[in-house]
Amino acid sequence: MIPTDFLFSQQKVTSNLFNIEVQKKANHYKSHTNFFQSALFFIEEEWDSTLVYSAKYINTSVHDTAIQNYAHYFRGYSFKEKRMFDQAEKEFSLISPKFEFSFLVKKRLGVIALEKSEFRKAITYLEPLTKLEEGQYAYINKSSVFQNLGLCYLHIKEFKNAELYLIEYAKLQEKQKDTLKLIDAYGSIANLYYEQYKDDLAIPYFKKAYQLSTNTKNFETKELTSLNMAVVEENRKDFARALKYRKEYEKWKDSLNDQNKIYEVAQIEKEFAVKQKQQEVNLLEAENKAKIQERNSLLYSVITLIILLGVTFYFYKEKIKTNKIVLAQKERLDALNATKDKLFSIVSHDLRSSVNALKTSNSNLLDNLESKNLNALESALQSNSAIVNGAYSLLDNLLHWALLQTKQSYFQIEKVRLFFIVEQVAFNFMPLMKEKGLTFKNSVLKTEKVFADQESLKIILRNLLDNAIKFSKTEDSISIYIESSKLGYCDLIVEDSGLGMSKSKLEELLKDTSELAKKEHEDIIGTGLGLQLCKTYIAKNNGRFSIESTLGKGTKMIVSLPKTIKNG
Amino acid sequence: MDKVNVLIVEDTASESDALIKALEANNYNIVGVARTFKDALQLFHSTAADIIVIDIFLNGNPEGIAFAETINLAPNASKPFVFLTSSTDRKIFERAKLTQPFSFLMKPFNELEILYALEMAVEKFYEQQDVFLGDEEDTVISEDYLFIKKGKSLKKVYTKDIIYIEVEEKYCNVITEHEKFVILISLTKILKLLNDTVFCRTHRNFIVNTDKIEEIILADNLIILSGKHQATLSDTYKDILKRVRTLK
Question: Is the pLDDT of residue A493 over 90?
Answer without folding.
Answer: yes
